[in-house]
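Q: Got a minute? One more chain.
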Amino acid sequence: MRDIHRIIDKEMPQTEAEMNALMERINSGEYPAIEDEELTIAQQAEDLVSEAYELPPGAGRRKAREALKLDPDCIAACEYLGLNEISSSRAKIHFKKGINIGRRIFGGEFLENNRGFFWGIHETRPYMRCLQYYSDCLYTAKQIRECVSIQEEMLDLNPNDNQGIRDLLLLYLIQLNETEKFTKYADMFPEDIGAYALFNRALFAFKTEGDSKTATKKLKEAVKENPYVAKKILSRKSKKGLAEHYGLGSEEEADYYVLYAKHIWRHTHGAVKWLLQHSK
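A: Always. Here it is, folded:
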């Protein structure tokens, strides 16, 4: 995909017909590979970061720092360095640096022209990932409002939310008692299903309405969709590891949700008792 984007940037097709013709040449193998001497400084730095991911962490970090020395605006290198820090506080520094670079080079006219499409643009994806990782670091540091602010910025840049940030955003808005904002963002994704969406809606209904018929109905819908979640919230045991992937309704999905949501449920007055009462 990276090479395809580079070819498109090089050829700059102006019409749909030209784009289709170019893609046909690429897919058929007729388009020659871009030679190293044709690469820009930024592209050379990107390739160094790609190489870093294939190396052991120590060598990878050296390669990423080499990329930043070559191109100080290489956000992908900041992302790599953040992901390979042991402590969240140190990782946060790298992600913040990537965000500052992104806000500078993707601001102004670029932002005006591309707001809402930042995940669909190859160049802005490392920036979007830095925003996501940075928000995680902020939450770990108990800077919850700052975390939410970053997540809202992400939805502004990419309302389709390809990164799935809304799941945690809605959960944190419940924690912060941000009723209007919860409703605003939940209404943006009314067709969402799965543990995050359904259990978040149920918890929000309970927190705002108490043990109402509406709240109980939402909870029963959530429990029906994934019966593992309630058991794990009620259990005092904690999950040590997570699967790489999960399917809707699975125990693995419940593990992911409970990792982030358990303490919020247990600190919402009356929620655990309500869950125990209606999840049997």
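A: The chain has a mean pLDDT of 90.
Q: Perfect, thanks.
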